[in-house]
Amino acid sequence: MLTDLSDRIRATPFSGTRRLVALVGAPASGKSTLAEALAEKDQTMQVVPMDGFHLDNAILSDRGLLRRKGAPETFDVAGFVHLVKRLGVEDDVVFPLFDRARDQSIAGAGAIRPDTQTVLVEGNYLMLDQPGWRDLAPLWDLSVRIDVPLDVLRDRLLQRWADHGYSPAEAAEKANGNDLPNAALVLENGLPCDVVVADNQLCNAGPPTPNVMKKVE
To answer: Are 59 and 104 in contact (CB under 8 A)?
Structure first.
C-alpha cells in the first residue's frame, strides 16, 4: 500500500513550486507515521505538521480553551493557511514545529529543503468544512484521508495516554473529554478527499492488502 500511495503522489501534477499533499485523519489515526514512512521512502518528500500552529498555553488559558487544546479553535488557522499558500509558490519557506516535551510551538524550527518536490502536510483539520479551515481545500494538489473507526481510535488514544504515564481513569478522561470529540468532528465534518486509506497500520505490513487504498470519484 505504501508503494501504491507513493506512486499516486508522484504522479499527481502540480503547477507551483512544489506538490502539496494533505494527509488528513483523526487523532491517533496514524498521520505522522504514514507521513514519515512516505518521506523516508522518497527523499524528495518532506513533512510539514499542522501542530506547529497550536496556540500557546497562556493564550489558551486566557480564552478558557486549555482543556480543549487540539480542537480547531485552539490553532492559528489564518497563519496556517498563509503558510500553506507560501509552500506552493515560494522557494525558501520556514515553519514552526511543536515540541511535545515542552508542550509548545517553536517558531522557525523547520525549513523546506531545496530538493523538496512534495510537501506532505499532516493534520486533523486539513479538509474540515468549517470557516477558515475550508480555505485549505483548494490549495492541495492531492488530499488523502486515513479512515479509522472511532472504537479503534479510542483504544489507541487510551494506550497513548497510558504510555505518557497517565492512569486508566486519567487516560479515559483525556480521550473522552477532548480527543474523541475532535475525532468525531473530523469524521463527520470533513470535505471529500481524493484518496481514502482504510487503515495506515498496513503501511508497515509486507504484501499489499486488496482494497486498502481507493480513489474517491
So the answer is: no
The cell for 130 is 468549517
% of the chain with per-residue pLDDT over 90: 66
Its pTM stands at 0.87
Helices (H), ranges, 73-179: 77-89, 150-163, 168-174
Beta bridge partner(s), residue 121: 22, 48
Distances in whole angstroms, Cα of residue 60 to Cα of each of 71, 89, 98, 213: 11, 32, 15, 38
Of 78, 30, 20, the closest CA to residue 53 belongs to 78
Lowest mean pLDDT among 43-52, 158-167, 190-199: 158-167
- Structural domain spans, the chain: 2-215
Calpha distance 91→107 (Å, rounded): 19
The CATH number of domain 2-215, selected from 3.10.150.10, 3.30.365.10, 3.40.50.300, 1.10.3720.10 = 3.40.50.300
